[in-house]
Write a structure and sequence with these properties.
13 helices; eight-stranded parallel beta barrel; alpha/beta; nucleotide-binding; FAD; single chain; oxidoreductase; TIM Barrel; nucleotide binding; proline dehydrogenase
Length: 308
């Protein structure tokens, strides 16, 4: 399974990067992508978060977009996040927000990117909300961590980031950021990375993932475990039970459109569960990574599409 999954993942991410494939997918794949995306408009996304809230499921909202071509494009994304934070506050939703640094211009103008994200984080603080700066692929790992540290030094502590367990550097980053009090979402990792920077075997990735989860739980830090892996979920449940760690000390996070019944079940069992809810028209890169995570995602989406 490990070799097959690795081949599937690398093949899909490689093919998805071909311009013609992307063009055809965007033209004909919207119906499939709807499984993972909560609509194209802010209003649709807020309504879906409200529905999830009634099931006991918290949310983090993500206005889709990454890899902009001109720095001026970041302005529109920034404004959308300011409106998003207002919408959450107005409707009193149990949701924070997630954004990607390249969406705000990191690859084009780091200074402008920082100014954009700082404005969003500052506005979120005024609304008593939180901003999660998503972690992208390795060219941006250090820059993203540095940005979070700089914001916190300015007193904007309502910001955190993500650590990807498949990277070799993550064990060190986890210890350092934990000591600094940075809020982290812990994930396995969803980008195509080279052998010299990331674990390739599923067993190695899982071992790293468990290690950083244990580190956070043992230190008493609020722990956000983002996974759909039943084995990891059951392992966390057992670990916190044997250590006497209360359910309020951690949360599970899952993606919109995947295992929604399981998310509602966890909420009913008293666990804190947060759903990552993306919306917007720039869905292709996000959708591709979801399909690349495992063949079952592709089969599930195709099956769902045929039923409509």
């Amino acid at each position: 399974m490990g070799i097959g999954s690795k081949w599937y993942r690398k093949s899909l991410l490689t093919v998805a990067g071909i311009p013609l494939v992307e063009k055809l997918s965007v033209a004909y794949g919207k119906r499939l992508a709807g499984r993972f995306v909560a609509g194209e408009t802010l209003e649709q996304a807020l309504a879906e978060v409200d529905r999830l809230g009634k099931l006991g499921i918290m949310a983090t909202l993500d206005h889709l977009g990454e890899g902009i071509r001109q720095i001026g494009e970041a302005e529109a994304y920034k404004e959308q996040y300011l409106k998003l934070l207002e919408g959450i506050a107005e409707k009193k939703l149990r949701s924070n927000v997630s954004l990607k640094p390249t969406q705000m211009g990191l690859a084009l103008d780091p200074a402008a990117c920082y100014a954009n994200i700082r404005e969003v984080v500052k506005h979120a603080r005024s609304r008593r909300n939180f901003v999660r700066i998503d972690m992208e692929n390795t060219p941006y790992t250090q820059a993203t961590i540095d940005m979070v540290r700089r914001l916190r030094k300015e007193g904007l502590t309502n910001v955190g980031t993500v650590l990807q367990a498949y990277l070799f550097r993550t064990a060190r980053d986890a210890r350092e950021l934990l000591d600094e009090g940075v809020s982290l979402r812990l994930v396995k990792g969803a980008y195509k990375e080279a052998d010299d920077v990331a674990y390739q075997k599923p067993s190695e990735v899982e071992g790293s993932f468990k290690s950083i989860i244990k580190l956070h739980l043992d230190k008493g830090a609020y722990t956000a475990v983002a996974t759909h892996d039943d084995a990891i979920i059951e392992w966390v449940k057992t670990y916190v039970r044997t250590r006497g760690i209360p359910k309020r000390a951690f949360e599970f996070q899952m993606l919109y459109g995947l295992r929604m019944g399981e998310q509602a079940k966890l909420a009913k069992e008293g666990y804190r569960i947060r759903c990552y809810v993306p919306y917007g028209v720039m869905w292709y890169p996000y959708f591709t990574r979801r399909l690349a995570e495992k063949p079952g995602n592709l089969m599930m989406v195709l099956k769902h599409s045929l039923k409509r």
